[in-house]
Amino acid sequence: MRRIAITNQKGGVGKTTTCANLGAALSQRGQRVLLIDLDPQAHLTTYFGLDAGAGPGAYELLTEQPSVFETLLKAEQNLTIIPSRLDLAAAENELINTPGRESVLRDRLAVLSDEYDWLLIDCPPAFNILTLNALSAVDEVLVPLQPHFLGLQGVGRLLETVSLVQQRINPSLCVRGFVLCMNESGTRLAGEVIADVRKFLDEARGQDVPWRDARLFDTRIRRNIKLAECPSYGQSIFTYAPKSHGAEDYLALADELMRLPHEA
Amino acid sequence: MRRIAITNQKGGVGKTTTCANLGAALSQRGQRVLLIDLDPQAHLTTYFGLDAGAGPGAYELLTEQPSVFETLLKAEQNLTIIPSRLDLAAAENELINTPGRESVLRDRLAVLSDEYDWLLIDCPPAFNILTLNALSAVDEVLVPLQPHFLGLQGVGRLLETVSLVQQRINPSLCVRGFVLCMNESGTRLAGEVIADVRKFLDEARGQDVPWRDARLFDTRIRRNIKLAECPSYGQSIFTYAPKSHGAEDYLALADELMRLPHEA
Ligand SMILES: Nc1ncnc2c1ncn2[C@@H]1O[C@H](COP(=O)(O)OP(=O)(O)OP(=O)(O)O)[C@@H](O)[C@H]1O
Ligand SMILES: Nc1ncnc2c1ncn2[C@@H]1O[C@H](COP(=O)(O)OP(=O)(O)OP(=O)(O)O)[C@@H](O)[C@H]1O
Ligand SMILES: [Mg+2]
Ligand SMILES: [Mg+2]
């Protein structure tokens, strides 16, 4: 199972949209996909018109002992989700004094064997215990990036955090790459951001850092209002507007991700 | 002095852009404006090409005893800022056991008398001690809203939090209104969001809630790439592109805000 955390502490850059629609794209390709909503805003859960309701979700998974299998909800065909609610915010405080608090999720997921081909985790816009749990439970990091100046500012700190997790908690963690979201091609700003990221990644090649093999994905997710509309129908872009640019772009991203070499 | 917190826990909806450019618009109108960067991402500080450097900033203001006047940096003409750095994130833990931890900022600002006409505070995308400090130190809340489905989801919880702060800590707190940001007029989605917000506010009229007089501002901030470009030059939209839609819209917002009746 390929395990990927979709994270960027900058708000509103397309984390949830990427987790939902990349997940749906992989399931379009016949892959079995598990999503986890690790954001107390519960936007990934809402995206598919779901509600954690009274059943166990991400909060219970981190603080009690339900089996992972009790938390699963079906989002779409071949697409399963561990939902969250607002109470997930309380997990932050409850875990504060737990030994190895960052690795609770990893341990809870250890019971999964070959039920899924992919695991994608949607992270909140912050470096908190929830994000650290995601980074400890996966092998790869995918960073959605809006091609704006403010969007670039926090990347250095994000990579520092990944590096600390890799050194202290999860040696197999690496940065798979950066995905441009809400891209408006042709703007000077996007060109500048792309050049900046490319230069930074080229300089990192071969160095002993978790992003030495990271790439700027060739696939760019174009700004497309249908991607903002589909969650109001509780649908992925493939159910809502299968012929749209949004569907095309996320399918291309899934294909590019599936082609990339990775540690087994 | 009118004191306003610019807040919305949803990420990337235009909080920092609104704080920077509404502040600059008010100073264009000859007002004396103080901005506070209460987000550890320090994007408001970066917006004007500034850096808290070694001097005291928002972190020190909350945890040590510098005078407010030592933390001030000049952003533009008539526009002063209390900057932040990444270390502001540490204030969250340091204040956890301080009695009345939410009111520290209010107390620190009490020395200000008539140096400024407006105080605008940029909040992080979270309901944390920093946001609670902002809500306790002001009289009005301005909520930037992206006209998207996911952007609407957290509004109820935001209003609940404002209501609790008004009941328990700051009785003078009220919601001044919602400002549509990155608005792409003509999309069906924007129309639906506008109708939803209007209906919600109409139903609240006259009820005993902090948003009974809240409005959906007539001014809508149009999506405009120049608003995303100007921070890369360390300038407000008025310095970078004074004839752009962005400058027009934020000036109109400042005028609308100045015309609104408010408690003295
Ligand atoms: N390619 C796109 N084109 C148009 N709108 C988009 C696109 N990607 C995302 N959006 C919209 O932009 C907004 C921000 O995206 P999203 O909520 O996925 O970001 P996020 O990083 O998960 O935000 P948060 O930091 O709050 O978790 C949402 O309203 C979403 O519907
Ligand atoms: N009207 C607009 N038109 C185009 N781009 C905009 C507009 N308003 C904001 N932006 C851009 O959108 C991105 C998000 O805006 P901003 O950073 O101000 O939101 P925020 O709510 O402060 O985000 P965070 O939750 O991370 O603090 C930024 O890159 C900004 O430059
Ligand atoms: Mg999200
Ligand atoms: Mg901001």
In summary, what is this structure?
Chain A has twelve helices and eight strands. Chain A is of the alpha/beta class and about 260 residues long.
Helix and strand topology:
Two copies of one chain form a homodimer.
Chain A: E1 2-6, H1 15-28, E2 33-37, H2 43-47, H3 58-63, E3 73-76, E4 79-82, H4 88-95, H5 104-109, E5 118-122, H6 129-137, E6 140-145, H7 149-153, H8 155-168, E7 174-180, H9 188-204, E8 215-216, H10 225-229, H11 237-240, H12 245-259
Parallel strand pairs in A: 1-5, 1-6, 2-4, 2-5, 6-7, 7-8
Antiparallel strand pairs in A: 3-4
One adenosine-5'-triphosphate sits between chains A (11-17, 39, 43, 125, 181-182, 221, 223-225, 227-228) and B (10-12, 146, 148, 150-151).
Account of the 3D structure:
Two copies of one chain form a homodimer. By secondary structure, the first copy, chain A, is an alpha/beta fold. Chain A is 41% helix and 14% strand. Chain A contains twelve helices and eight strands. Chain A has helices spanning 15-28, 43-47, 58-63, 88-95, 104-109, 129-137, 149-153, 155-168, 188-204, 225-229, 237-240, 245-259, and strands at 2-6, 33-37, 73-76, 79-82, 118-122, 140-145, 174-180, 215-216. An eight-stranded mixed beta sheet of chain A has the order 3-4-2-5-1-6-7-8, with helices on both faces. In chain A, a hairpin with a 2-residue loop joins β3 and β4 (79-82). In chain A, α1 packs across α12. The longest helix of chain A is centred in the C-terminal third of the chain and has 17 residues, at 188-204. The mean pLDDT of chain A is 95. The interface between A and B is medium-sized, with 32 and 32 residues. Bound molecules: adenosine-5'-triphosphate (2 copies) and magnesium ion (2 copies). One magnesium ion binds at residues 15-16, 39, 43 of chain B.
